[in-house]
Amino acid sequence: MLSAYPELVEFLPCASPDAWVKWAIENETTLLVDHAHCEKKAASTAMSLMYRYVDRDNLLHKMSRLAREELLHFEQVHKIMRKRNMPYEHLTASRYADGLRKHIRTHEPARLVDTMIIGAFVEARSCERFAVLAPHLDEELSKFYISLLKSEARHFEDYLELAKEYSNEPIDERVAFFRALEEKLITEPDTEFRMHSGPPKAA
């Protein structure tokens, strides 16, 4: 499935660990609840960027569209959860997003560039995880996750293009920095399962 998105595969430092995939299959309710939270957070992030960077025309255009799509995805996940009598509950956040965002530089435009690069990694990883999970899920969930691949891949491209557009210098070094960090966050063990967690910590 990911063969249609070679740039996305090349961008990510590694594939999701098999142990994480097994963990996800065993925790379908948590998977869907956290997925819903992720879509809502993604929409919120896009809206926050629109408020913070009101003078960035291309950002406004791309983030407006992204926010609408992420909210639609939230509604779709929530609909599946209601159909399956799964409660939508609060979950503690995984260390993934915070582990990336705590390295954002504080001066502009570096702050914006780092935020865009992180957005690209989050969207790319989400796309990769939907693809690796789809073959192992029931028909309804599998079709749904496959249907998300195109938009998630486009979101990755949008974030990366914006990072390049608003940077005063090549972004290769910052991409490499966050790629190494992302690999560590994805491969190191976690105690709680989440959409963007690492594999389970051995008992």
Describe this structure as you would to a colleague.
This protein is mainly α and 203 residues long. It has one domain (16-187): Ferritin (Up-down Bundle). The chain has helices spanning 6-11, 18-26, 28-52, 57-83, 95-101, 110-133, 139-166, 172-187. Helix 6 runs antiparallel to helix 7 and helix 6 (110-133) packs across helix 8. The chain starts with 5 loop residues before the first helix and ends in a 16-residue tail after the last helix. The mean pLDDT is 96.
Quick synopsis:
This protein has 203 residues and is an all-alpha fold.
CATH superfamily membership, which one?
A: Ferritin, core subunit, four-helix bundle
N-C termini distance: 33 Å
Give the averaged pLDDT, no decimals: 96
Low-confidence sequence ranges: none
The CATH architecture is Up-down Bundle
Structural class: mainly alpha
Note the beta-strand portion: under 5%
**SSE order, one letter for each helix or strand:** HHHHHHHH
As a whole number of angstroms, the C-alpha radius of gyration is: 16 Å
Residues in helix, %: 55-70%
Indicate the overall shape. globular
Tally of separate domains: 1
CATH names the topology as: Ferritin
The overall strand count is 0
Strand count, sense and barrel status of the largest sheet are: none
Q: In CATH's first tier, which class applies?
A: Mainly Alpha
Number of helices: 8
GO molecular function, one term: tRNA 2-(methylsulfanyl)-N(6)-isopentenyladenosine(37) hydroxylase activity
Protein name: tRNA-hydroxylase
Organism: Marinomonas mediterranea (strain ATCC 700492 / JCM 21426 / NBRC 103028 / MMB-1)
Pfam family, one: MiaE
